[in-house]
From TrEMBL, chain B:
This is 4Fe-4S dicluster domain-containing protein. Residues 44-73, 177-208, 209-238 form the 4Fe-4S ferredoxin-type domain. The keyword Secreted does not apply. Residues 17-36 are annotated as: Disordered. Keywords: 4Fe-4S, Iron, Iron-sulfur, Metal-binding, Repeat. It comes from the Bacteria. InterPro entries: 4Fe4S_Fe-S-bd, 4Fe4S_Fe_S_CS, FDH_Electron_Transfer_Unit. It holds the Pfam family Fer4_11.
Length: 189, 364, 851
């Protein structure tokens, strides 16, 4: 940076020599301010999405940089929402980047007073064993009158209203194959 | 730029630079006044139409998400507490609240209801405002205490007559309630006291005519805080800097609208070129008046007001005081040019005397 | 609507700006009321009285849209002689006081068989009742087997004068619902009621339509299904169904709660509203279809829908010889709804539980019941983003504080598995308008977080591996299951588009189906959810279509995909008259183009494209062929909108006002106080407040705030939302505050027969006491978002609720109950239990407890 350039950027110089003698505008704009731009401008990609809160189904644009969500805003293209979001939808960036979000498996042994860590693969394996065991113990071939039941009451599931259709489909399909009829979600509530 | 200094009456700076900066009175183009070249963008602003505000506070959240403004858990000493001011738990504008939705529960005797503020007069519905009301017919005048100047809490219990026991006529039946909501924001004044007193140049007038704090320059001196006639700007404890709405200065350059306006579900917050917003606001006001909503009024729209008009102005359904807005804001530096001119004249006089003295001396 | 669906509310505000009148009928004055033209306050739980009053007003003044009514409804049909109306007693014919159930056989139309309603007759699992119905159907229809269920056309009186025609039956039923009577029940003035009645009737007809919008304020009642029925009757009488600007719009509260009903994670449904089979002797596919499928209308193809589903699930193992593996499906024997499941958990009859994106310890009625269920499990899997109360109940639940439970005594093994959020996986949500919208994955989930798709796919794989080689017959459905989705990425994420494609279905050549009308019952087609068929039309993910709204007309048919067949308004044939002409130019939507010989318009016609209005079915026609060119309600067996429902409802053919179970007042319209067919759970942890109790004198209602989301898992943990509504509070009127000595911002304790909770007091004029007869009813508002975890904390409002249920859908009455309220904080520890018990003693309620 040459002396002349340096001088030219010095607010007092600009104030004294330019059209902003009181130093209230152009003369005092700092280089940082001058360089300001929206952080969405340098997103690697803008991904089309849908708000995860209520069932209005507002369109969202997810701005991603370096594999992280940097901003979530309403999608103006959506004929449902026209780019608008409510306070919850507007808090989506906080939702997906929440510092209190739990991102590792937590495990509580029976009668324990604290959580422990557990490997994800081990956890899934343990759950598979428990499903098989509970299914067996809760199995009913027929009722007292000999009517075919072919089902288990050994375990149940609650949830689905916040999930994707494809996910609900797999849950229902798997539970039906297991003979597990006790599948419920918020739609009953 | 003619007739713009009638009230302040000062062109004392002409001699200094040949331009005509101002500190009060109407000023169509504050950006040029602040030294931006003639091809700068048009002045932009907010028109907040409170008659369609549903108080959802999306503006508050969208603002904070975009600008990374801390929440109460970061900066407030009393974490996550109700304020008691209806559904308003933000309280007021401040360093960490750049949008603030005020909720006013306006209580009036039943039967004194004013017309609905947004709907069409249907002919078969009475022109009653949306209100809870029972079958009573109270005749007490509207209680001033229900509309405190600060727009804050109301001691509802104090309003009650001594009745209301179980199974009796309840006084609540006799009153209507109107729930006013309004999203407040920095007004981006035509004459911004905060900017005019800022000694560091941290506060500046942008090419869009908005008023913005530059975080890298602000030293937290706080001169701006008392200079704002609206009580908007404040210094944040955690970082010591002054903060307020930037009208999303970083977004404007890319042609994006401010985060709050973009989120607003009912388009209560409208962003755009100020002249167009003013025209839209005038039309909306005429529409509401045409529907019999006589109490509708614009606030901050008038370039002849004490701040030269606001870059962020409002359509209100009651007196500004009801919303916690000053009825007649005046830029705190309005009299500064007068003072400085007097000072300058004094200085010139003094200087002349000195020169005269030298001159006389030289003649010796 | 402004409170819980603010962005959807923009359209209401836009309509208002264009001249629409917005009326808000709600016990509370909310953010919606604030911008409505008229707010009508009324008493929670009085909606059927209100809607019944409107029906009365319409019928009494003959303000119905007569041409619409005679064309599209069953108004002219004659009800059988055996039917006896509820009248003053409030009980219809067919009620058995011992079982608390109705036998609907006496409700049938004259000369008609026992007719299946729209989506199957929902089967009656009691064999006696079932056989009874079959016999009756045989008798009256004079046939057997299949013919037994082909509805004979009941006699009609198109003048609507026959004393037993539906129109007159309806008129008599609602005769007692006069403006004065219902205003008194609701706690509003007669003039307020009439304002609404005049507004909606003037705004309905050829040239105008009125829409009703509701949420769980209508469903969370022991008569919830009948609330919706009442609205349906009103809207049908006024000609507001199937037309633009009309309808009854359910605003649903979760991103894909509609989808989770369509592809049901619900015990009583298979995908596409096919009922789950119940246990019957010798049940096979044929007998199931005979019992459950209407023979006429589009449910006449239930065999094709069901066989295609079975083929999607069991592929080559589903053959004509084995009934397409119909026998693989488990069977129901009654109510296996969520509250029954929790009861069984407490009784240790069921051992394991998956909680996926749901927080019942906070979000469900009777929180203690929920947590007792969790504490009596052997194992619990919680999949969520934050540490919700349903995962940590063993550590910090309210029962730990009271000493009812000890952490060291709770044997529940808990697996908390972090889940992926909406930006971390691709898939579809189905919104409240039945619109499927595809989301694209933006980033990878962090750490151990995985999608549900990943979890369930790999869990299924693991279980299948562990059981591979099993010869046990019960493992066949699992081992024969089609479970081989392609995966991608380091975590072997299943491809969600392949799942959506399976849901859409394939034809015999392996090509994507484009419509459910292509489905066959011979096993040559497969589809996981028939109503979603078309979402992968032409091999294109139609749910991912994103033509900007600004580049489309107002129907916006090219954004996402709406089931069925991308129709945006259901039953839109009714937007045209009998001859297929629009009712008016202003309300033109779908109409018959005689020149082209097809239906056309702004939307996809919800009618066979080339069936002319003049079509009349030949004798013995099947499925849609049996519906005439004016039978707009194509899912109904008779193609008609039912003003009177001879089947399909467990608590009467016409909605009747019953008081909530916990009501402060007597039923002013009928002798019967509350729904005689409701479902109870009579246990120590579910005590009910007596009706008209002096001990629990106040009504409370629960609701959401704009700033929070349901049980708080997605809002209480976020600073920007928590600061906006930072504490649990109750809203009370100044009069109630005065009556109980409550101070604004002070503490209050609220007490029911279940427990006591504390909340900050918000005294507001927006809450109004109501006069019901000579009684003043105070209502208390309770937002229900809080719990012990998160940034903003408080007692759970739902802990105050007991569980009593609607008999049709087994949904709890959580929008109205009673309590007491006292100033100050609640007792802590065991003292709380004694405090609540003392109230129960005073009220004459049996002792509470945890077993």
């Amino acid at each position: 940076m040459g002396a002349r350039t340096w001088l030219g950027e010095w607010p007092i110089f600009r104030q004294a020599t330019g059209p902003d003698p009181l130093g209230r505008g152009a003369a005092v704009q700092s280089p940082r301010t001058q360089a300001l731009g929206p952080r969405t401008a340098d997103a690697d990609e803008v991904v089309k999405s849908v708000c995860p809160y209520c069932a209005v189904g507002c369109g969202q644009n997810i701005y991603v940089r370096d594999g992280r969500v940097t901003q979530i805003e309403g999608d103006p293209d959506s004929p449902v929402s026209r780019g608008r979001l409510c306070p919850k939808g507007s808090a989506s960036t906080s939702l997906v980047t929440s510092p209190t979000r739990v991102t590792t498996v937590r495990y509580r042994r029976p009668y324990a007073t604290e959580w422990e860590d557990l490997d994800l693969d081990t956890a899934v394996d343990m759950i598979a064993d428990r499903v098989i065991d509970a299914r067996r113990r809760g199995w009913q071939d027929t009722d007292d009158d000999g009517r075919v039941l072919r089902r288990t009451l050994g375990f149940s599931s609650l949830g689905g209203a916040t999930l994707d259709n494809e996910e609900n489909y797999l849950i229902k399909k798997l539970f039906m194959a297991l003979g597990a009829i006790q599948v419920e979600n918020q739609a009953r509530i | 730029m003619t007739n713009v200094f009638d009230r302040a009456g000062g062109k004392v700076w002409d001699a200094f630079s040949g331009t005509t900066p101002s500190l009060s009175g109407p000023l169509p183009d504050p950006s040029t006044d602040a030294g931006w070249s003639g091809d700068h963008p048009k002045r932009v602003g907010f028109f907040t139409d409170t008659s369609v505000c549903i108080g959802c506070k999306a503006c508050e959240v969208a603002c904070k998400e975009w600008n990374l403004v801390p929440d109460d858990g970061t900066d407030a000493s009393d974490l996550y507490r109700l304020t008691g001011m209806s559904y308003d738990n933000t309280g007021d504008l401040g360093a960490s609240s750049w949008r603030h939705v005020a909720f006013i529960e306006d209580v009036r005797p039943h039967g004194t209801a004013t017309p609905a503020h947004g709907g069409q007069q249907t002919g078969f519905l009475p022109a009653g405002l949306p209100a809870v009301h029972g079958g009573g017919n109270g005749h007490t005048p509207r209680d001033a205490a229900t509309a405190p100047p600060d727009g804050g809490t109301v001691d509802l219990l104090a309003l009650l007559p001594d009745s209301g026991a179980h199974g009796q006529q309840t006084p609540d039946d006799e009153r209507d309630v109107r729930w006013l909501m309004s999203s407040d924001v920095c007004k981006h004044c035509t004459h911004a006291g905060c900017l005019d007193v800022c000694p560091t140049g941290a506060l500046f007038r942008t090419e869009f005519g908005t008023v913005v704090v530059q975080d890298d320059i602000c030293n937290g001196c706080g001169y701006c805080v008392p200079s704002c006639p609206y009580g908007v700007i404040d210094v944040r404890e955690s970082d010591g800097g002054a903060h307020k709405c930037t009208l999303c200065y970083d977004r404007l350059g890319e042609g994006l609208e401010p985060a709050c306006a973009k989120a607003c579900p009912t388009n209560s917050i409208q962003f755009g070129d100020l002249d167009e917003l003013q025209a839209a606001a005038d039309a909306r006001l005429a529409e509401l008046h045409g529907r019999g909503v006589q109490e509708a009024r614009l606030y901050g729209r008038d370039p002849d007001d004490g701040v030269g008009g606001d870059g962020a102005f409002f359509l209100l359904l009651d007196e500004p005081e009801v919303y916690g807005l000053p009825p007649d804001p005046i830029v705190t530096t309005r009299d500064l040019p007068e003072m400085w001119r007097n000072a300058a004249l004094t200085a010139v006089g003094l200087g002349a005397a000195v020169v005269a003295a030298f001159w006389k001396g030289g003649r010796r | 609507m402004a409170e819980a669906h603010p962005v959807g509310f923009q359209w209401v505000m836009e309509a208002k700006r264009r001249g629409a009148t917005v009326i808000h009928v709600d016990p509370r004055f909310t953010r919606t009321s604030a911008v409505a033209d008229l707010h009508v306050p009324f008493r929670a739980g009085a909606d059927i009285a209100f809607l019944g009053g409107l029906i009365h007003y319409v019928l009494d003044n003959e303000l119905d849209f007569r041409e619409y009514v005679t064309t599209f409804t069953n108004a002219a049909e004659i009800v059988g002689e055996d039917f006896a109306d509820a009248d003053a007693t409030g009980i219809f014919s067919g009620y058995d006081p011992e079982t608390g159930r109705y036998d609907p056989i006496s409700w049938q139309m004259e000369g008609g068989g026992y007719e299946a309603p729209a989506a199957g007759m929902r089967d009656h699992w009691e064999p006696e009742l079932r056989e009874h119905h079959a016999a009756h159907a045989s008798d009256t229809a004079g046939g057997a087997g299949e013919q037994a269920h082909a509805p004979a056309d009941p006699p009609r009186d198109d003048t609507l004068q026959h004393p037993r025609c539906v129109y007159q039956v309806l008129k008599r039923h609602y005769a007692r619902y006069t403006p004065e009577a219902v205003a008194s029940v609701c706690g509003m003035s007669t003039e307020q009621f009439l304002e609404v009645a005049r507004a909606i009737t003037r705004n309905s007809g050829r040239d105008r339509t009125t829409a009703w919008v509701y949420s769980v304020g209508w469903t969370h009642h022991t008569v919830g299904a009948q609330y919706i029925r009442a609205a349906a009757i009103l809207q049908t009488l006024l000609g507001n169904m199937g037309r633009p600007g009309g309808g009854i719009l359910a605003l649903r509260g979760h991103a894909s709660i509609q989808g989770s009903t369509d592809i049901p994670t619900l015990y009583d449904l298979l995908p596409g509203y096919i009922p789950m089979p119940n246990a019957h002797l010798h049940e096979d596919l044929r007998s199931f279809l005979d019992a459950d499928a209407a023979k006429t209308g589009f449910w006449g193809h239930m065999d094709a829908y069901l066989v295609s589903l079975l083929k999607a699930w069991w592929g080559d193992a589903a053959t004509p010889e084995n009934d397409f593996a119909f026998g693989y499906l488990p069977r129901l024997t009654g109510n296996h709804g969520t509250y029954g499941i929790v009861r069984d958990q407490i009784d240790k009859k069921t051992f394991g539980y998956f909680l996926v994106g749901e927080n019942p310890a906070i979000g469900h009625a009777n929180g203690k019941m929920q947590r007792l269920g969790l504490a009596n499990l052997e194992w619990l899997v919680v999949r969520d983003m934050q540490m919700i109360e349903s995962a940590s109940f063993w550590k910090d639940g309210p029962e730990i504080e009271t000493g009812e439970l000890r952490t060291e005594d709770i044997g529940t093994e808990v697996f908390f598995l972090p889940c992926a959020n909406h930006t971390e996986k691709s898939g579809t949500f189905t919104n409240t308008q039945r619109l499927l919208q595809w989301r694209r994955e933006a980033v990878h989930p962090p750490g151990d977080a995985r999608s549900e798709l990943h979890f369930y796919f790999h869990l299924g794989k693991r279980i299948r591996e562990k059981l591979a080689g099993s010869t046990d017959e019960r493992d066949r459905p699992l081992l024969d299951l089609t479970w081989d989705y392609p995966t991608f990425g380091v975590h072997a994420e299943p491809d969600p588009e392949s799942v959506l494609a399976e849901i859409n279905g394939f034809d015999a050549d392996g090509d994507h189906l484009s419509s459910y009308t292509q489905m066959k019952a011979d096993g040559s087609t497969s589809a996981g959810c028939w109503i979603y068929t078309g979402v992968f039309k032409d091999g294109v993910n139609q749910a991912d279509r994103r033509t900007p709204g600004s580049e489309q007309d107002w129907v916006a048919a090219e954004w996402g995909w709406a089931w069925p067949a991308n129709r945006r308004t259901l039953y839109n044939r009714a937007s045209a008259d009998a001859d297929g002409r629009p009712w008016s130019e202003r309300k033109a939507y779908v109409w018959w183009d005689a020149e082209q010989g097809s239906w056309t318009g702004h939307d996809v016609p919800d009618f066979e494209a080339t069936k002319p209005p003049s079509y009349r079915p030949p004798e013995g026609a099947h499925a849609e062929d049996a519906l005439s060119g004016t039978d707009a309600f194509i899912m109904q067996a008779d193609g008609k909108a039912w003003l009177y429902a001879p089947t399909g409802l467990a608590d009467g053919p016409m909605p009747t006002h019953y008081e909530p179970v916990e009501s402060p007042v007597a039923n002013l319209l009928h002798d019967q106080q509350d729904n005689p067919a409701r479902e109870d759970i009579d246990r120590a942890w579910n005590r009910l407040n007596p009706a008209m109790s002096e001990t629990y004198p106040y009504v409370f209602l629960t609701y959401r705030l704009t700033e929070h989301h349901t049980a708080g898992g997605m809002s209480r943990f976020l600073g920007y939302l928590s600061e906006l509504q930072p504490e649990f509070f109750c809203e009370v009127s100044p009069a109630l505050a005065r009556e109980r000595g409550l101070e604004h911002l002070g503490w209050a304790t609220l007490i029911s027969a279940r427990t006591a909770i504390e909340a900050r007091v918000v005294v507001t004029e927006r809450m109004k006491p109501l006069r019901i007869g000579d009684h003043v009813v105070h209502q208390i508002g309770l937002p229900y978002h809080w719990g012990s975890n998160g940034l903003s904390q408080g007692d759970p409002a739902n802990d105050l609720l007991g569980v009593v249920m609607d008999p049709n859908v087994h949904i709890q009455e959580s929008k109205v109950a009673t309590c007491d309220i006292q100033p100050g904080r609640r007792p802590r520890g065991p003292a709380l239990l004694e405090f609540v018990e003392s109230y129960r003693r005073k009220a004459g309620v049996e002792p509470g407890g945890i077993t």
